[in-house]
Amino acid sequence: MSVDKDRIRDIALKHALINAVKFNGKASINAVISKVFAEDPSLRSAAKEVAQIVKEVIDYVNSLSIDEQRNLLMSKWPEALGERKVESYRKGIEDLPSLPNDNKYEVITLRFAPNPDFVLHLGSARPAIINYAYKLKYESLGRKAKFVLRFEDTDPRTKRPLPEAYDAIREDLKWLGIRWDEEYIQSDRMGIYYDIARKILEKGGAYVAAKDTDCTPDDWKKSKMMGKPCKNREADPSINLELFDKMLEGRYKEGEAVMVIKTDLQHPDPSVRDWVAMRIIDTTKYPHPRVGTKYVVWPTYNFSVSIDDHLMGVTHILRAQEHSVNTIKQSFIYAHMNWEQPEAIHFGRLRIVGMTLSKTRLKALGIRWDDIRLPTLAGLRNRGIQPEAIWNIMLQVGVKPTDATISSANLFAENRKIIEPRANRYMAVINPIKVIIKDVTEELTAKLPMHPSYPERGFRTITLKPSNNEVIIFISRSDYEKVSVGSVIRLMELVNVEIIEKTSNALTAYMHSKDLESAKKVNAVIIQWVPPDGLTIRIVRPEDLRLVEDEGLAEHAVEQVANGEIVQFMRYGFVKKVGNDRFIYVHD
């Protein structure tokens, strides 16, 4: 049988990447071959040739770092990551309360609408996850559902979009396992906003306050605060349309004219009264990164959002409680245009203790947004936080109207549940102290499991050969400080020793016994250790907004760990390998 080698490679690559991402960067040839045959049983007749192709693919995939594997899988088969994640979140998704009036709509349409003036952080992950979770919930019930990604980038002056943020946000969402059905960028839709503005002006639902009229922008501000109409408010629509055209033609400078939506001048909240829908921004001073100086008249948030939510068929808007006043403001656009307003669900504020989430403060730090000190999704990803942990946190918080508080400790606890079964165990000692063990007459051998709960992952062996009846090992300074002369300590999976001398930079000990039971009888403390030829390592550890570097020694087995893989240095914490001898501290 002749086989299509390129097709087999493609199938094998997909399953090798899925398997590798699932199992710490190492794909299993037997598992991948089984998946290939399951996808195309006809290939069994060419099993030998298929196995050779799969082996070549496995060798390639296993040569990549975990991050490279994940990125390749995301770019070619994003649904594979998404399906795996969705299954693990299924219970939390099912527990979400039903959306109001959900039976009224043929297609439940939700949206996530970030401003690309910065990348996503932990706080902005909440609306993204909750909205997408509802799409999945309704699809699981056999309903049609849609998720829209919309970039809201219509304020080049005060919320200037960053060119690189658009793709960064897309990557953040893909990393979370979120897939959108439609994508829009508001700066591409300026003509739509102008058309709707004209329609509202024609209907008499808006007016223009301009410097060369009896209703200047200052007059408008003073009048609305007093609950009184500005003179242009009741002018003939043709006059206000003419003024709007003058705005578009660039005949007014920034601040000299605004288009205002008619609302309720007696509303108790002055911000709701006759609010600005269109304003002038001098794009020669503040050019837009995508459209440059093409436009000078820009829609405000509430104007563009109302139009887009209607035209994109959004049925339900889930957002934070602080947006409740925006729902009121937007209701006037829907009334003027005779549109049906989407259902609005406002959840409580999310306070995150121990992390700086202010965009202004994060920008002011002057460091890359993927820095491991930052609570940006890119920073958390680089640090070793798993997307499942963020999903679990956000689904626990849910859409409750009451405020909620989470901490970095909560996030780390969720992440620990995910990485603990995946992370193999290794020994490392920080600020190493020499220990000389005397009266050793034979080789000492330690058999260490890769993971105590998963013996099928295998073991590694460390052998120490005595020289002049002595063996040298290293322990961490923190353990050194806890022991005293006369105490017995158990060297993990090796022997028990009794301390006979303690100096400022070393310990001397005699062999006490070998078995664990003897150690228990004398309440010996179990500590990790490293052989004398240990690998010098450096671990970068975030402390608030500082970076601390821990130096130490690790067993040489860590050299086989793939870059991007997370392991546990026993009694130190989880770390992510980022170089031959460099690691990032994830958490304890």
UniProtKB/TrEMBL annotation:
Natural source organism: Vulcanisaeta moutnovskia (strain 768-28)
Xref: SUPFAM superfamilies: Nucleotidylyl transferase (SSF52374), Ribosomal protein L25-like (SSF50715)
UniProt-listed GO biological process terms: amide biosynthetic process; glutamyl-tRNA aminoacylation
Top-level taxon of the source organism: Archaea
Keyword Chaperone: no
Family: Belongs to the class-I aminoacyl-tRNA synthetase family. Glutamate--tRNA ligase type 2 subfamily.
Subcellular compartments: Cytoplasm
Record key words, sorted: Aminoacyl-tRNA synthetase, ATP-binding, Cytoplasm, Ligase, Nucleotide-binding, Protein biosynthesis
Protein name: Glutamate--tRNA ligase
Cited function: Catalyzes the attachment of glutamate to tRNA(Glu) in a two-step reaction: glutamate is first activated by ATP to form Glu-AMP and then transferred to the acceptor end of tRNA(Glu).
Principal EC category: ligase
Motif ('HIGH' region): 114-124
Any GO molecular function: ATP binding
GO cellular component terms given for this protein: cytosol
Protein EC: 6.1.1.17
Classification via Pfam families: tRNA-synt_1c (PF00749), tRNA-synt_1c_C (PF03950)
